[in-house]
Model the fold of this input.
Amino acid sequence: MDKIRSLTGMPDYSEKSEIDGVAAKLFHVENSLKEIFKSFNINEIRTPALERTSLFQRSVGDFSDIVNKELYSFKDKNDRSITLRPEGTAGVIRHIVENNLESYSNKFWYMGPMWRYERPQKGRYRQFNQAGIEYLGYEEGLAELELMSVVCLIIKKLNIKNSLIKINHLGNESTKAEFAEAIKNYFEPYKSSLDEIDIDRLKSNPLRLLDTKNKDLQKVLTNAPVLTDFLPKSSINLLNKIKDSFQDFEIEIDPTLVRGLDYYNGFVFEAISNDLGAQSSFLGGGRYDNLSSQLGGKIMNSIGMAIGLERISEISNIETDKKNRASFIILAGVDHTKAYKMAHELRSINENVILETHLSSSSLKAELRRANKYKSQMAFIIGEEELKNNKILIKDLKNESNEQKNVSYDELIKIYKNL
Ligand code: HAM
Done:
């Protein structure tokens, strides 16, 4: 019979798998991020993977690449158009608006799979994982600094080298309008060389033209008006304050950074790493104060970011398995239940040890080979004799001498506590 294969661009992640070395790191990174979020007193939120298609059209934007080309949309049995979420922000704001929570302050984090129908390549998948945070109800200033503080802590804790954080400010509504007008005028003579999407962008959100992938347009852009020239003093001050506050990190003001989603206003940022190849951005976000009203709610100050978990895992330099490893070997013929009780108690007195229980009936030699393969530093061996005398044989697997000694159960507890 034919084997059933997974869908293109949708990888499996198994900690044991040799197929993709990233999995163990990915799981470890997820845990580290949760700890960082907790240390900022950010609360978890889980929203559904499926939402109405209109949610993303109205938030991410009709003219964004994501909505234009990359949505996984289907008709359900009721003939409603539904979509697998391409990102997490829209669902969080839908939750707030639906429950009339716009006037409360909230700090949320989420983690989970997202779907975008992109051309798969290294670092770009159709199903990928994001961790995101959203600060809701916080006006410009402190929230921007705190978000950058989260970013810098992540870079430090995951030991990411060669990262660059690009920051920019899209101004307020009036600067945005003035700049959009200037861009429109500038592009007027080049209109015939624009494709349909760029013409639509020119009409609806000219800022997004700065983000074009069209090589000819990129050339035209070199002499285009620069956003920074239109920004109010307060925006420039904020960017400089952020740069000054995190001097241990590489932070650069990039006036061409506009991001690929339509909902941003104000401060935006992206972190990139040259170690990632073409898909260099491993996290990004910004302020989006108008999204709640775009989704039918009251206006609400909002700022957030999302981290690409596959990408950040690839460049993180962390040891995934810092815990001690040990093997608990129950020899053939021994009363398993009695021996297992010991293993159970050991686990409860020191959670820093990963204790593998060997329940096979093969020879001690084979079990020790397994323990070595498993990188156990110590083996606790229990045979019939040991069980009868309330003793256990401890064998050192770390050093070549492979010393071993018989200890009482009380001694074992003491040794195990200090592992
Ligand atoms: P985004 O820049 O579209 O922002 O995605 C954030 C991160 O997700 C990217 O920097 C990248 O690392 C990762 N990513 C995106 N697409 C793929 C893909 N196809 N394969 C692998 N990784 C990918 C957002 O999603 C916004 N919701 C961020 C945000 C939150 N802004 C405000 N709040």
User: Anything to note?
Assistant: The chain has two domains: 22-171+231-315, 324-417. The chain has a mean pLDDT of 91. The pocket of histidyl-adenosine monophosphate is lined by residues 87-89, 116, 118, 124-125, 128, 130, 132, 134, 260-261, 281-286, 288, 304-306, 308, 310-311 (CB under 6 Å). The CA atoms of residues 165 and 271 lie 4 Å apart.
